[in-house]
Amino acid sequence: MALNVAQKLMKDHLVSGKMEAGEEIGLKIDQTLTQDATGTLVMLELEAMGIDRVKTEASAQYVDHNLIQVDHKNPDDHLFLESATRRFGVHFSKPGNGVSHPVHMQRIGKPGKTMVGSDSHTCAAGSIGMLAMGAGGMEVALAMAGQPFYVKMPKIWGVNLTGELPDWVSAKDVILELLRRHGVKGGVGKIIEFYGPGVSQLGAMDRHVIANMGAELGATTTVFPSDEEVRKFLEMEERGEDWVELKADKDASYDLEEEINLSMLEPLIAKPSSPGNVVPVREVAGEPIYQAYIGSSANPGYRDVAIVAEILKGKQVSNSVSLDINPASRQLLSDMTKSGLLFELIQAGGRLHQAGCNGCIGMGQAPATGRNSLRTTPRNFPGRSGTKEDSVFLCSPETAAASALTGKITDPRDLDMEYPKVELPDKPTINNELLEEPLPLEEARKTELVKGPNISKIPEFEALPDEMELPVLFKVGDDISTDEILAGGGRVLPYRSNLEEISKFTFEILDGTYYERAMETRDAGGHVIIGGSNYGQGSSREHAALAPRYLGLRFVIVKDYARIHWQNLVNFGVLPLEFVHDEDYDMLEQGDVLRVKNLHRTLPATNALEVEVKGKGPIEAKHSLSKRQIDVMLHGGLINWVKQGKAKNS
């Protein structure tokens, strides 16, 4: 049977289930990735499970999100993470070394391997032929402990790339084109696999740009073949021995097929406040801007920043614009320095920031009130930038640079200049000292965990009751992101290891009274949330499930879920239900009281449930839980399930 790349990767790592769309499968995981906004919980979970040493081929912990040190919390947690990596046998990437995704791709990622990461953009590693998926931290901890990773078998969506990119159009426009066509739900339940003659036109870092933002389509992951471009990339990184060829068989087929003719693309831009709100740049040209932001994991390569420097060479950005340069890695910063192009950016008026996630996650570089920000970042969900009423557009480096020069949104094709050509460095600046190797086992066992005052334990949660009668505390609409459920940024993320404190920010962007109202219901049994379509899109941060659970959330009913948040709800014992009839959403209101009963018998027997709405009658709901997940749910979440030895028997 002819197989595509995604099927080959899954077949080589399949440990349970059938590779049939919708069926739960278990996959052996070779590598894991954690970052500091989510990794603290992962390390605490490893400690709670009594793990002696991780069992993956390679696991790496990056410090890239919480780099601002306004008090003790972030640096204390970084010391904890470093001690935990030494204790458990994990690579440690120091603050300032760069964003996890490009650094992992450069130093550790290998074609043909599987990876899960506690960051939704883990899928970026598909750029070099890996099967890499974002997940909640608890699932990553289990993978580090040697357990399989469970996911519903996705459909494979083949995207045939033909033609060549025109001048002033780059990889960011390719993924924006897919978002223009399909929106933020277009990839749900699918793996996006790129193939065809146009793939060879894209370098490994160009592919990273595209694979990274597959998360914005809601895709399970994105994969590219491992071909000559990947070989060249690994050889430049002095890792040529890690290359293996991985291509689709000649007669391979896909569940869905689509073509993008690269030659027909034009500069595109996502308007506020969704990555799926994409239009041609010329449609919004002329809008004044306050900020042009270059960098992040969605444009992390040398070319992405060098092209901006070439466009700005000998020029000055508009006096009305803050040009923020956010290099994704120290290696990139070093290479730009050696080439002299960093000088051009600074001389043109650029503001240089340290290598890390920074403004992408709302950790600095927030735009001014009521002003437009153009960013090459992957997301523009409401408030993600750190400014509550932000107006953030997503675009390519070329569009951001052209707009910085003019002070208004500008199609780069309208600049009076030839399209610059960028040559990659002959030899990148490689510094392996900033990525600490795991300690030998005996030395690791002697390492004590360093815990500052901001680190608290994960509370114990009770098992799922057989019957619940609870109020609807909050009703939300479509496409609610995890940033809106529990924001990131400099105010919130320092409390990532302190659940009691971080829970105070839950839903604050949408309803500043939620926390107080939730606390009132917690001791009385808890509450319910009602939502629309694509509930929980965006970040993989499990805090967006854990904090509401801590505040008493027991079940959610929505039209449908984003994959990772749905799984995180299960992991912490929050029952994720869906409307059978979407119109029932309109009938429910905040304050309604809902009753579900006989859960211990009903959940294993059927995916259908009746929900009694007091004073209004019954509505039909359903669940999509596997047999294993039902067992997890009945135990009250994954931690209880693991403690009772269930993981060993799954």
TrEMBL record:
Q: Which UniProt keywords apply?
A: Iron, Iron-sulfur, Lyase, Metal-binding
One of the record's GO molecular function terms: aconitate hydratase activity
List, for all copies, the residue spans of the domain called Aconitase/3-isopropylmalate dehydratase large subunit alpha/beta/alpha.
8-407
Which residues belong to any copy of the Aconitase A/isopropylmalate dehydratase small subunit swivel domain? 514-580
Catalyses which reaction(s): citrate = D-threo-isocitrate
**Region of interest called Disordered, as start-end residue ranges on this chain:** 370-390
Write down the Gene3D superfamilies for this protein, in alphabetical order: Aconitase, domain 3, Aconitase, domain 4
Q: What is its EC number?
A: 4.2.1.3
Q: Which PANTHER family match?
A: ACONITATE HYDRATASE B, ACONITATE HYDRATASE, MITOCHONDRIAL
Q: Fill in the subunit field for this protein.
A: Monomer.
Protein name per its UniProtKB record: aconitate hydratase
Q: State the species of origin.
A: Sediminibacillus dalangtanensis
